[in-house]
Amino acid sequence: MQKLAVLTSGGDSPGMNAAIRAAVRRAAYHGVQMFGVYHGYEGLMKGDIQEMTLGSVGDIIHRGGTILYSARSEAFKTEAGQQKAVEQLHKFGIEGLIVIGGDGSFRGAQKLTEKGFPTIGVPGTIDNDIPCTDFTIGFDTALNTIVEAIDKIRDTATSHERTYIIEVMGRDAGDLALWAGLAAGAESIIIPEESHDMNDIIERLHAGQRRGKKHSIIIVAEGVGSAASYAEAITRETGWETRVTVLGHIQRGGSPTAMDRMLASRMGAAAVDLLLEGKKDRMVGIQNNRIVDVDFNEALSQKHQLDLSVYQLARTLSI
Ligand code: ADP
């Protein structure tokens, strides 16, 4: 292969730029040309493609978001859309494509491989919800953003002796809520993977109060329900004043942590190596701190498993 391309798709995540940089520079190291596809699959269908040079990825390793922009595309989900995408890739002489994104983006990449076009996926999402990889690019940064926010809220919670309910991202995956809950010392963590009992949450609040705790922090993953509804229920049951903070999109941006830059650099470079080795239809992952590659089908047919021992540990430590 002499010409490869890279795109970012779906929700952006901090570290995507570091992955793009690694892909471009690794390709250059191998003497291979790298093209950037702008605006995800939408841009791919339109031929919004430009050659990237060593310089075009300078000064981006520390920037959040993605210099290639990201998009969601309904048109690409159609046969005609995918056909158009393959035609554009052929028009530019591109022989392999790296897709940085989440599981939806990987399903799109698979469709291209089914049409005979080699693709490799790099998991970029703050949710950490991709099977077969211990971590995804952006998770560590989002986690640190959340923990920093909770630490600040804790100051006010303590000063005013209040209960705070904090809603974090994670529609189907509770990883961010769970890890942030443990790292920030939350009293209760409410995640989609684990059933919860309102009586238990209230009892834990009372137990804390009996011990002389001045504040309480409860983390709710957005997929379980709104923080406001939990706050109402707690106030109804206890008569205590509660406050709600929905962290929202602040969790998606910001300069990537060193861990995310490392992960992105390793994964972006590995994606190039895999294409040049003639591999396709695979996703790069990290398992036990080793870079691995896994068949898309294998990864996408599984359900993401959250480490429930972390949940049990958080419960033990927050009594
Ligand atoms: P993420 O990659 O973060 O999970 P999405 O699920 O929104 O984000 O997927 C990003 C894009 O990937 C979609 O807008 C669509 O263009 C493409 N895509 C998702 N699922 C499929 C599919 N089953 N077939 C083809 N393309 C898909």
From TrEMBL:
The keyword Hydrolase does not apply. Substrate binds at T125, I126, D127, R162, M169, G170, R171, E222, R243, H249, I250, Q251, R252. It catalyses: beta-D-fructose 6-phosphate + ATP = beta-D-fructose 1,6-bisphosphate + ADP + H(+). PROSITE patterns: PHOSPHOFRUCTOKINASE (PS00433). Its cofactor is Mg(2+). One of its GO terms (molecular function) is identical protein binding. The active site is at D127. Mg(2+) binds at D103. ATP binds at G11, R72, S73, G102, D103, G104, S105. The keyword Repressor does not apply. GO terms for biological process: canonical glycolysis; fructose 1,6-bisphosphate metabolic process; fructose 6-phosphate metabolic process. It holds the Pfam family PFK. Belongs to the phosphofructokinase type A (PFKA) family. ATP-dependent PFK group I subfamily. Prokaryotic clade 'B1' sub-subfamily. Catalyzes the phosphorylation of D-fructose 6-phosphate to fructose 1,6-bisphosphate by ATP, the first committing step of glycolysis. This is ATP-dependent 6-phosphofructokinase. It comes from Brevibacillus gelatini. The gene is pfkA.
